[in-house]
Amino acid sequence: MTAQYGAEVASVYDSLIAPAMPLDEEIARLRPHLEGNRVLEVGVGTGRVATAAAPIAESLVGVDNSAPMLDAFRAKGVPANVELLEADFLRPLPFGAEFATAYSTMGSLACVRTRDELVTALSNIRAVLRPGGVLLFEYYSTAAYRPLVEAGTITVPTPHHGGTSTFTTTLDAASVLTMHTRVDAEPAPPVAFSEHILFIERDEVEACLEKAGFGAAQFYPAEGMQPYDWYHVRSEEW
Fold it and tell me: Per its UniProt record, what Pfam families does this chain match (predicted)?
């Protein structure tokens, strides 16, 4: 799968996107499943979560299919117990069943175009989890994003970055949501990029999890203005 988050996103991720998300809440949810464990992060990006998770985990492997995002992480310095790998979750991951915990934040697992692709991604993660291993992930909240689809285009200030961000959001008949983002922050030149995600309801996400061999999901809906729901599932015994 072609990386959605290339050099354009990498150039603004740490100044625009990361500051808008509450890292403390994510780490608090992950902590019990990180402590003393070998952990996999799917969609590690520039290391926003991995850098905070690494001191808690025994070791952490971060995979991402975007070389520019991984390069941005390396430029900041990678913790000693973290290994980075450029890999696509739609292909088998090059590990055995060695992880006690896998996690994915910022809706990374939604970066597929079909339900079958989501099942494939989840199956590839399950294959590298120990029996009974845990997967925690954020998925785009339909409650949060449907108003954006209805609005079409909106422009909002970005006080932590300066300037404005303009979002144009569409949803097609195949449940693929496309968001075009343009960041304007003078004197820097505009930055534009697009995201495509599978925009499905909770029952469909849970059906995909079941097909991939995970047990019943614990579900935590997005709160307030947060854009993601949380899922917590356990790999069924082999």
Answer: Methyltransf_25
Q: Are 197 and 139 in contact (CB under 8 A)?
A: no
Q: How many CB atoms lie within 10 A of CB 50?
A: 23
Cis peptide leading into residue 187 (ω within 30°): yes
Structure confidence by residue, pLDDT tens digits, 134-176: 999 999 999 999 999 999 999 988 777 778 889 999 999 999 9
Written as six digits, the tokens of 132 are 């009974």
Degrees to nearest 5, angle at CA 113 with 110 and 119: 65
Q: What is the CATH number of domain 7-142+201-234?
A: 3.40.50.150
The structural domains of the chain, with segments of one domain joined by +, span: 7-142+201-234, 143-196
Amino acid letter, 47: G
Q: In sequence order, which ranges of 35-114 are alpha helices (DSSP H)?
A: 50-53, 67-76
- pLDDT, mean over the chain: 91
pTM for the complete prediction?
A: 0.93
Q: How far apart are CA 179 and CA 141, in angstroms?
A: 14
Q: Cα(65)–Cα(49) distance, rounded to whole angstroms?
A: 17
